[in-house]
Design goal:
about 200 residues, alpha/beta, Pyruvate-ferredoxin Oxidoreductase, domain 3, six-stranded mixed sheet
């Protein structure tokens, strides 16, 4: 069983990224369940999506992970990554965007919100944290609209690195992601999203 959570705020596209990940897993014949558990899919609200995958033929009965059960958490926003940290296994990986968006609701609502402090707290927790320079990647792509694709691709790249001990290593890859993108996004965005995957791969 492989568990992945994707967290962010409304408008960042975490739900679509979860859909792409789920379709990549289903393309391998796995049973997959997904859920959205907190917040609302609106701009400013926190959004948490879960993808549970039976990669060894397991039946997946519940779409919700328990505490310390996620193999990977993909945080499109650092504060949301910190909020979800309790879900990460001790052997799991937190892949987090360097830049942040000041929340308009929730625990971290503050005019002085500092995403760098959120990342420092994640790193101080002892978790395996991979920080993605999302601003540089989005600038290179020419669009912030593909942040979700950049973060999902960055996570798949990280878990497939030679030194990775992740449960996803060699199981789900960037090529698996590429194969399902056309079926998951509107036609006019396919080319940009595939370029985003290739951009991450080449970094």
């Amino acid at each position: 069983m492989i568990n992945v959570s994707l967290v962010g705020i409304g408008g960042q596209g975490s739900v679509l990224a979860a859909k792409i990940l789920a379709e990549a897993a289903r393309s391998k014949g796995w049973q997959v369940r997904t859920a959205e558990t907190t917040g609302m899919a609106q701009r400013g609200g926190d959004v948490m999506s879960h993808v549970r995958m039976g990669n060894n033929g397991e039946e997946v009965f519940s779409p919700l992970p328990g505490d310390a059960s996620d193999d990977v958490i993909i945080a499109l926003e650092p504060g949301e990554g910190l909020r979800a940290l309790h879900l990460l296994k001790s052997s799991g990986v937190m892949v987090v965007a360097r830049s942040g968006v000041a929340p308009t609701v929730g625990d971290f609502k503050s005019p002085s919100y500092d995403p760098a402090k959120m990342i420092e707290a994640l790193q101080a927790s002892g978790a395996h944290v991979v920080v993605v320079d999302d601003v540089a990647l989005c600038d290179a792509l020419g669009s912030r609209k593909a942040l979700n694709i950049i973060m999902l691709a960055s996570a798949l790249k990280a878990v497939n690195a030679p030194e990775s001990q992740s449960a996803l290593r060699g199981v789900l890859t960037l090529d698996d992601m590429r194969a399902v993108v056309p079926a998951c996004v509107k036609e006019r965005f396919v080319e940009m999203n595939l370029r985003a995957v290739s951009l991450v791969e080449g970094v």
